[in-house]
Design a protein that fits this description.
heterodimer; A: about 220 residues; mainly alpha; MetI-like fold; 11 helices; about 0% strand; B: about 350 residues; alpha+beta; Rossmann fold; OB fold (Dihydrolipoamide Acetyltransferase, E2P); six-stranded mixed β-sheet; about 25% helix
């Protein structure tokens, strides 16, 4: 059995997760400080990928990253890098789709964070960087952790946008989810079932891990 | 050390227009909740930005809308102790003290732990220590950051009442050692009186009166200041002739010592009423209600010759005195010098 889809899926999910961790947290931190109306608008835009069908996200990504589109052309002509139909194309898709999960969970955590801790730290002369990494993040770790795991899981299971921007090339862009669809479509039910079981095992592990962490936290 | 603050900010539903001056002293900001007293501290510390005004701490302009100066809180060096003490929950007591300190001078931290009796809990997390210990940790942390002024927002509100008296005395020692400007926000007149030299009464976003505590308590000047300093008997009133006012809510005429044209209310503190006939303002009253307190009685009185549906006047006295004078009717006097003449 060819294990490439597993390795590729994990690689894509891991990279997206790292990207989304930083961008999602930054977006959550700054929007949680915005005034009412602006916050509402920004929030809608940042949450949109969560409610849009993944194919719509894929459509937008192709419009931007396609070889003859603005970003795609710039990358191809300037650096000779193709942005579509390669393994890391799936990273763009997974990142966009899993971003709202990180952003929303982190924002929820930041909004319940007691701002007087931040204010008091400021009057004590602590820098904003110190306050964020040493006080805000540890206090919000549960929400942050939950967001990270959720976005990892979402990135791992991403199918719609990925299949549009990265396609399915065995050994090149195949991920677990695209493999399951292709194998089933071509009638290779045995292999499709194997990948389904692999996927189940991963999801089961991730969720058990989250539950264990949560139990440790409450104790 | 000095503080000069002019703060103006329009919040839409609420306007804050505060002007304050303080020297090397403890100044209380006395006000009801929502009056803007805590906000004032936030503006001085730099957590919020005024629309206009200026704030000068020790000769250093930390905010000026005219000169476009707005130092971040980190550079203002104002110690601000929050109502909930704002200890970092993810750090131990020692780590909390170290966090405020750039030099990480452990000898100084150890001294502070000793001074505030925190050695026993130095490795505990804030969630595991008592309210009093939390307050002392917050104080120690603030002092280690070498603030140029200290500001405390309702320092006792999170403590059980039996702890307050002792922590109040501890706090007084801290203020004396500090020796600089201290702003204390409180809604409790007793706290403000015991801890401070001067009191600024804040109401609805502006400073109504400022004065030494004796001035403010003996002549609160405004209705709100009278309420905040604990005056419970207040009636609408206006002068009918020189030195005489008619208190319409009580239905009686009272002789006063002075005359002020802007008087809209008259106030009488519950304990400043005397028993029996003592010169002017003597009234035969009907006893409406007797309330027993642990060490005193509060008796609600209605003057006999007044019209119907008036508000009763509260009279608080020693238990012994009440046992001597009690009855269905009593004769009391309100000494003219004890009548507070108040404006809106």
């Amino acid at each position: 059995m060819d294990w490439y889809p597993l390795a590729n899926s994990l690689r894509v999910a891991f990279i997206s997760c790292v990207i989304v961790f930083f961008t999602g947290i930054a977006a959550a931190w700054y929007t949680s400080k915005l005034p009412g109306l602006v916050k509402g608008v920004v929030d809608v835009i940042l949450t949109l990928p969560l409610v849009l069908p993944p194919t719509v996200v894929g459509y937008f990504l192709l419009r931007l990253f396609g070889p003859r589109r603005i970003i795609g052309q710039w990358a191809l002509e300037g650096f000779g890098i193709r942005l579509t139909m390669v393994w890391y194309s799936a990273v763009f898709a997974s990142s966009v789709v899993s971003f709202p999960l990180m952003y929303r969970t982190a924002r929820g955590a930041f909004e319940t964070f007691d701002r007087t801790l931040e204010y008091s730290a400021k009057t004590l002369g602590l820098s904003d960087t110190y306050i964020f990494w040493r006080i805000v993040m540890p206090c919000c770790r549960q929400g942050i952790l939950a967001g990270t795991v959720l976005s990892f899981a979402r990135a791992l299971g991403e199918y719609g946008a990925t299949s549009m921007i990265a396609g399915y090339t065995p050994g090149k862009t195949a991920t677990i989810s695209t493999a399951v669809y292709q194998l089933w479509r071509t009638g290779d039910d045995v292999h499709a079932l194997k990948w389904v079981l692999v996927n189940l095992a991963i999801s089961f592990t991730v969720l058990t891990f989250v539950n264990l962490l949560e139990r440790k936290e409450t104790r | 050390m000095t503080l000069h603050a002019e703060i103006h900010r329009d919040f839409g539903k609420f306007r804050l227009d505060v002007e304050l001056d303080a020297g090397n002293e403890t100044l209380a900001l006395l006000g009801a909740s929502g009056s803007g007293k805590s906000l004032t501290l936030g503006f001085i510390a730099g957590i919020m930005k005024p629309d206009r005004g200026r704030i000068i701490i020790d000769g250093l302009e930390v905010f000026s809308s005219e000169k476009n100066i707005n130092l971040p809180p980190q550079k203002r060096r104002t110690g601000l102790m929050f109502q909930n003490y704002a200890l970092f929950p993810n750090m131990t007591v020692t780590e909390n003290l170290m966090a405020g300190q750039k030099l990480k001078n452990s000898a100084e931290v150890a001294d502070m732990l000793t001074r505030f009796g925190l050695e026993g809990v130095k490795d505990s997390y804030p969630a595991k220590i008592s309210g009093g210990q939390k307050q002392r940790t917050a104080l120690a942390r603030m002092l280690l950051s070498c603030p140029r002024i200290m500001m405390l927002d309702e320092p006792f509100s999170a403590l059980d009442s039996h702890l307050r008296f002792q922590t109040e005395r501890e706090l007084l020692n801290v203020f004396n050692d500090f020796g600089g400007t201290v702003l204390l926000v409180s809604h409790n007149r007793d706290e403000a009186f015991r801890l401070c030299r001067r009191i600024a009464v804040i109401h609805d976003g502006h400073v109504e009166i400022v004065g030494t505590k004796d001035e403010v308590f003996s002549d609160p000047k405004t209705r709100n200041a009278a309420i905040l300093t604990g005056c419970k008997n207040i009636s609408r009133a206006n002068f009918t002739s020189e030195g005489k006012i008619f208190a319409s809510d009580w239905g009686i005429e009272l002789q006063c010592q002075s005359h002020r044209n802007d008087t809209r209310y008259a106030g009488v503190r519950m304990h400043s009423i005397t028993a029996g006939q003592n010169g002017a303002n003597t009234f035969e009253c009907k006893v409406m209600q007797v309330i027993e307190n642990p060490f005193s009685f509060t008796v609600m009185l209605i003057p006999k010759n007044s019209r119907e549906n008036v508000i009763p006047i509260g009279w608080e006295m020693d238990k012994n005195l009440w046992h001597k004078v009690k009855g269905e009717n009593v004769t009391v006097s309100i000494p003219p010098e004890n009548i507070l003449l108040l404006r809106e």
